[in-house]
Amino acid sequence: MSGAQPAIRDPRIALRPRPFHAEETPTDGGSANGNGGPARLPMIAGEVVDPAAVGAQVEDLGARELIAWAIERFHPELRFAVSFQKTSSVIIDLAHSIQPEASFFYLDTDLLFEETYATRDALVERYGLDLRRYAGISLEEQAEREGASLWRRHPDACCGIRKVEPMRAALSEAECWVSGIRRADSPTRAGAAKLGWDKRFGLWKLNPLADWTDEQIWNHLRENQVPYNPLHDQGYPSLGCTHCTVRPTDADARSGRWSGFAKNECGINE
């Protein structure tokens, strides 16, 4: 690695809370995308395209091929979302090998596990990432506005403030974003396409690992000696905030998220 130190950029943002999952509703009778700007049409290389048709064309591509395809068409307006779970480690390894200047970001809720922050640092050191950090209002301000321990009373509202709002800022100038979700994660993700139009945020969304199995994930990590979150070795197949993540007691990898609530998504990947 060169003498230049890898950077974790911190654009601290104070964001106006909005109702969870609320879409922008313009007052002029028109439409808007989920980031509050004018509605955007699905376009590639300046041409309006049918997302279903494009998705079908790339469905059979492998993860590396699909990431390369997206980099060719969308970089530098391509954003890789990093959760510091095992799938993120795989995607970072693949994307960095194709385009070292790829743009990575993460959402810091200020409630992540210490092991998660340590994984962040290990990945930054390994790949020399310029990793952009997005965060919402402080926990103190959230408590003043919404009362203490919002996650215990209204986890949807808490996710909206701490994850969905910062995500809007992270994607405000992007044309496509990359997620690590897989069809094997949960029944709600079983139908995830590898490429589609994300109506919530008004841009393309890529799921290059959609058809990967746990075995494929672990094989890639071990064969390439990629840093990964050690909590995966401690019975946590899915990781989020400390207050809302426990070890699952059944075969559903995401049942340890928001345990006790009828909720299995934070609002970003739904």
How would you describe this structure in keywords?
Rossmann fold; two-stranded antiparallel sheet; disordered N terminus; about 270 residues; seven-stranded mixed β-sheet; 8 helices; globular; alpha/beta; 9 strands; single chain
Q: What is the count of DSSP helices, taking H or I runs of 4+ residues?
A: 8
- Described by the principal axes of the CA atoms, the overall outline is globular
Unreliably modeled segments: 1-5, 11-32
**Which architecture of the domain at 60-244 would the CATH scheme give at its second level?**
3-Layer(aba) Sandwich
* CATH fold type of the domain at 60-244: Rossmann fold
Strand content: 5-15%
Per CATH, the superfamily of the domain at 60-244 is HUPs
Q: SS-based structural class?
A: alpha/beta
Average pLDDT level: 83
Distance between the amino and carboxyl termini: 38 Å
The number of E-state strands comes to 9
Widest sheet, order of strands = 1-6-5-4-7-9-8
Specify Rg, calculated over alpha carbons.
18 Å
What can be said about the biggest beta sheet?
7 strands, mixed
Report the helical percentage. Answer: 25-40%
CATH class of the domain at 60-244: Alpha Beta
Note the run of SSEs as H and E: EEEHHEHEHEHHHEEEH
Task: Show the helix and strand layout.
Elements: E1 7-9, E2 43-44, E3 47-48, H1 51-58, H2 63-74, E4 78-81, H3 86-98, E5 103-107, H4 114-127, E6 130-134, H5 139-146, H6 150-153, H7 155-170, E7 176-178, E8 195-198, E9 203-206, H8 214-223
Helix pairs in contact: 2-3, 3-8
